[in-house]
Amino acid sequence: MRSLSPFVLGHVVGALLLGAVGGSFIDLRAIFVFAIAMAVGAAASAMVCRWWPGYDASGWQLWVAGSLGNPLMLVALGFSADSYDCLLGTRTGWDCMFSDIGPLVAGFCLLPPLLGLALRWLWGRSTA
């Protein structure tokens, strides 16, 4: 059995913690739901990174693949594209109440790959 890559460990655990922090602003149920959703998205993203570019690839490639391979990121980008007129301010009203969710979730999805890269870097320094 292969050992777990430090990138995957940092990516998934970082996403779990970020989801828990994001959910803590709402209630106890949101802590669990956000943490699980972020961790599952990061695990799917880690599988994408395994296929391309590989866990030993350069940091920028892993960050791009880790961010864009996350299903939550794709949903957030789709939601933002759907509500672009609310985000640009050309449409207002009750229909635009949740239009900021897309960019917020997309921003949260950019961080876990960076945490995975940081753990990979720290892990490499400690073994060298």
Residues in helix, %: over 70%
**How does the major sheet shape up?**
none
Number of domains: 1
Structural class: mainly alpha
The number of distinct helices, counting runs of at least 4 residues, comes to 6
Strand content: under 5%
**Spatial gap, N to C terminus:** 23 Å
Mean pLDDT: 94
Annotation keywords:
128 residues, mainly alpha, 6 helices, 0% strand
Summarize the structure.
The protein is built from six helices and no strands. 75% of the residues lie in helices and 0% in strands. It is elongated, with a radius of gyration of 16 Å.
Notes on the structure:
This protein has one domain (6-127). With 128 residues, the protein is mainly alpha-helical. It has helices spanning 6-23, 28-51, 59-68, 71-82, 84-88, 101-127. The protein is elongated. The longest helix has 27 residues, at 101-127. Helix 2 crosses helix 3 (59-68) and helix 3 runs antiparallel to helix 6 (101-127). The model has no long low-confidence stretch (mean pLDDT 94).
Describe the protein's topology.
Elements: H1 6-23, H2 28-51, H3 59-68, H4 71-82, H5 84-88, H6 101-127
Helix pairs in contact: 1-2, 1-6, 2-3, 3-6, 4-6
